[in-house]
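REQUEST ID: PR-0412
SUBMITTED BY: lab tech R.K.
PRIORITY: routine
TASK: structure prediction, single protein chain
INPUT:
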Amino acid sequence: MTSLSLTSVPVFADYNSVLTDYNFQYTNYRAAYSRFTVSRSTYLTYQTLTAQNAAIADFKTVLTSRNRLVSSYFDLLQEKMNITPNIDPPDLQAFTGKRQSTKEWLDDNQKKLNNALTIEDLNTLSDEFNSRYQLIQLDSLQAVGRILLAKGANLDRKVALAFDKTQEVAQFLSADGTDISPIQRGLIQAKIKRDLSTDKAAEEKDLFFGKNATRGNQINLLQGQQLAIAANQYLRESVSYVLEILKPIIGE
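STATUS: complete
OUTPUT:
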């Protein structure tokens, strides 16, 4: 039987290529699982040798498809981190190591899976995957956390630049004798919104990397996404205050 190597997958050129492969692997896994559900039900109903062999074959396909899907997902996370600006190099390097470790583990599991002959063999390998899954889940969720936090930080940098430019304008106008109290009030409101964004980003970071985030099932991805959305929304509201300040100045 030809051995499937998951660690020798070629490096993809861009994010879209990786995303296409991930969608392909996801579709294959869903289809394989559906077939296995049917064949398992058939075997449990009729208890024939033919039905048993079909169920074992489909179960093996499901486990293979799952390994490929997880491997592809780690490739997708890697490429997304690569193209996301301002992710700290140590964090990127750390995930690269975790990705390699995961793919090596999947490769080893797959080699044993290729040689599995009985339902007991397959159940053992499935149990091995389940034991590893907490770490797989943790590493992948924290990679998502890095991406979300980096995106928020990138937006915050743009807001900070807008603040600096507005303050420069205020100083110029003040030196010219212009009443800048409306600008100062607008900046205070903008800062309040930015501070709220900072608070949400801190909650988001704690959710993904705090002392309680030691296992994958302890990280609520939906909650993390909602915190990121809230943080970004506060930043957009902060920018809207700055734009309102600048409108009468730039004549728009």
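NOTES: The helical segments are 15-46, 49-83, 89-114, 119-175, 181-209, 221-250.
REVIEWED BY: pending
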